[in-house]
């Protein structure tokens, strides 16, 4: 009887261990969403989506969607930015084992900065010359080792 009880205990341990492991892995949540232009509703490709609390983030794909996985339960501040659009911060709640979906609408903005001065230096530059000129004499063309125009 003692041997049967020991075998039964081992069987229960081996059966319950995978369930315990699966329960632990499903406690993380997922944050997904889509970033679109607030006027045209077109997806915004390459928008930065940052979780400020965890210092991690991602970039939207060609459809404007993003996914951030393996998040524990809690509230997160997400910061969304893209050149030419106003930055947005939003607080979202992520629950373990669940997918939290958020849609972001960005308004365009005008980027204003101070004047930028571009300076270039080039040695042996000639004022007024926009292209290089090379002159061939008829004798050089005749002596060239080519048989057709494609060579």
Can you put this structure into words, describing what you see?
The protein contains two helices and seven strands. It has helices at 2-25, 138-143, and strands spanning 29-37, 48-51, 56-59, 65-71, 74-81, 88-94, 99-106. It has a four-stranded antiparallel sheet with strand order 3-2-5-6, with no helix packed on it. The chain has a three-stranded mixed sheet with strand order 4-1-7, with no helix packed on it. It is elongated and about 105 Å long.
Helical content class? 10-25%
Calculate the mean pLDDT score and round it: 82
Order of helices and strands: HEEEEEEEH
Which sheet architecture does the biggest sheet show?
4 strands, antiparallel
Spans where pLDDT lies below 50 across 5 or more residues: none
Radius of gyration based on Cα positions: 32 Å
Label the overall shape. Answer: elongated
In short:
With 151 residues, the protein is an alpha+beta fold. The chain has helices spanning 2-25, 138-143; strands at residues 29-37, 48-51, 56-59, 65-71, 74-81, 88-94, 99-106. The model has no long low-confidence stretch (mean pLDDT 82).
Topology:
Layout: H1 2-25, E1 29-37, E2 48-51, E3 56-59, E4 65-71, E5 74-81, E6 88-94, E7 99-106, H2 138-143
């Amino acid at each position: 009887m003692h041997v049967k009880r020991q075998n039964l205990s081992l069987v229960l341990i081996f059966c319950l261990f995978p369930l315990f492991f699966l329960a632990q892995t499903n406690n993380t949540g997922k944050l997904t969403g889509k970033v679109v232009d607030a006027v045209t509703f077109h997806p915004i490709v390459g928008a930065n989506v940052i979780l400020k609390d965890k210092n991690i983030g991602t970039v939207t794909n060609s459809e404007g969607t993003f996914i951030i996985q393996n998040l524990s339960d809690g509230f997160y501040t997400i910061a969304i930015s893209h050149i030419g659009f106003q930055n947005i911060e939003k607080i979202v709640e992520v629950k373990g084992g669940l997918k939290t979906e958020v849609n972001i609408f960005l308004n365009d903005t005008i980027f204003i900065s101070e004047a930028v001065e571009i300076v270039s230096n080039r040695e042996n530059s000639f004022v007024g010359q926009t292209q290089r000129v090379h002159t061939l004499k008829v004798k050089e063309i005749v002596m060239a080792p080519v048989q057709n125009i494609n060579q």
